[in-house]
Design a protein that fits this description.
single chain, alpha/beta, Quinone Oxidoreductase, Chain A, domain 1, Rossmann fold, seven-stranded mixed beta sheet, six-stranded parallel beta sheet, globular, S-(hydroxymethyl)glutathione dehydrogenase [NAD(P)+] activity, ADH_Zn_CS
């Protein structure tokens, strides 16, 4: 029998306060408890969700952000029988207990055990509700809070139910894409909207998620995929991901929804809001066809933001729906999505803008904030 795991010291990028630069610190990561695994992170990346919550003044700090990553299981806690040391995994914020009604459903991925914890924006540990991270300064030890799967650390601890075991053939520095952004976009097109062959699609916001929506719509057989963004530098790459034409709202003197209605004889069949701005949800909704148009809200606006709609936009037969992780279940579906990267059915290179050492995470944040990066791979030494 292997000896029990011990706490381990490592580097992590700690958020000490809202809107502050992350600080590379030496922290201590506890051994995994019952039902948990500790993962050595090989590659992680930034998602706009991390930046959104970094800017929330009400959030408690210090905290370790991050939730897009790939790594290798370093140790396992008691009762974990489906993962072992050395397994290649993606830690995924969308847990899957496999026993509750949603987990057994074909149409619901909000696990009854993990969804309530996810809504607190922390990957809480039901065993004792304590973070597995701490830091010692001047002889004083204090806990560091977690966030989803807290992958801005060389090691992290998550529930085994929040790990997707993937093929060892999959490159970890590309597989991580399926732990959040790309999988969410693909699933929004496939699982939430159910984009049909020959249909018309509008994608508002051509960041990572928007491009993945376009990719998903392309694979589903959509005939027209219109990308909407105010940054024309994104248009060339968008066309590699399936976008057939691009619209820059700044080039028109009327609302973009009217532009799209004119381009599509009354509106598109499906619209996706991927920029995380409530005013664009309204534009997306009104850009769809009356009678059957579907709008999917994929982007995350600042918590507390309000959506104000003209009710007639819905009474005419349009619909609007939300999307969590593209409707995918982490353990069940993510391994197959990673295989799509390995088989080049999804081209990972389209989403990766740069590669930096983990210590340069603040540079990666600046690139993302300034619209100069999609996914920047942060590699651990």
């Amino acid at each position: 029998m292997a000896p029990p795991a011990l706490p381990i010291k490592c580097k992590a990028a700690v958020a000490w306060g809202a809107n502050q630069a992350l600080v590379i610190e030496e922290i201590e990561v506890d051994a995994p408890q019952a039902g948990e695994v500790r993962i050595r992170i090989a590659a992680t990346s930034l998602c706009h969700t991390d930046l959104t919550f970094l800017g929330v003044e009400q959030l408690q700090f210090p905290r370790i952000l991050g939730h897009e990553a790939a790594g290798i299981v370093e140790s396992v806690g008691e009762g974990v029988d489906d993962l072992k040391v050395g397994d290649h995994v993606l830690p995924v914020y969308q847990g899957e207990c496999g026993k509750c009604t949603p987990c057994k459903s074909q149409t619901n991925n909000l696990c009854e055990e993990y969804w309530p914890f996810l809504k607190t924006t922390m990957m809480l540990h039901p065993l004792d509700q304590k973070s597995r991270f701490s830091i010692t300064r001047e002889g004083r030890t204090q806990p560091i809070l977690s966030f989803f799967t807290s992958t801005f650390s060389e090691y992290t601890v998550v529930k085994a139910d929040c790990c997707a075991k993937i093929s060892e053939e999959a490159p970890l520095d590309k597989a991580f894409l399926m732990s959040c952004g790309v999988s969410t976009g693909l699933g929004a097109a496939w699982n939430i909207a159910n984009v049909q062959k020959g249909s018309t699609v509008a994608v508002f916001g051509l960041g990572t998620i928007g491009l993945a929506v376009a990719d998903g719509a392309r694979i589903a057989g959509a005939s027209r995929i219109i990308g909407v963004d105010i940054n024309p530098s994104k248009f060339e790459l968008a066309k590699k991901c399936g976008v057939t034409e691009c619209v820059n709202p700044k080039e028109y003197d009327k609302p973009v929804q009217q532009v799209l209605q004119g381009l599509t004889n009354g509106g598109v069949d499906y619209a996706f809001e991927c920029a995380g701005k409530m005013e664009l949800v309204v534009a997306a909704l009104e850009s769809t066809q009356e009678g059957h148009g579907k709008t999917v809200v994929v982007g995350l606006d600042t918590p507390g933001s309000k959506l104000i709609l003209d009710p007639t936009s819905l009474l005419c037969g349009r619909s609007i729906m939300g999307c969590v992780f593209g409707g995918f279940k982490g353990k069940t579906h993510v391994p197959g999505l990673v295989d799509m990267i390995t088989k080049k059915e999804v081209v990972a290179e389209n989403y990766i803008s740069c590669v930096l050492p983990f210590e340069e995470i603040n540079k990666a944040i600046d690139l993302l904030k300034n619209g100069k990066s999609l996914r920047c791979v942060l590699t651990m030494s």
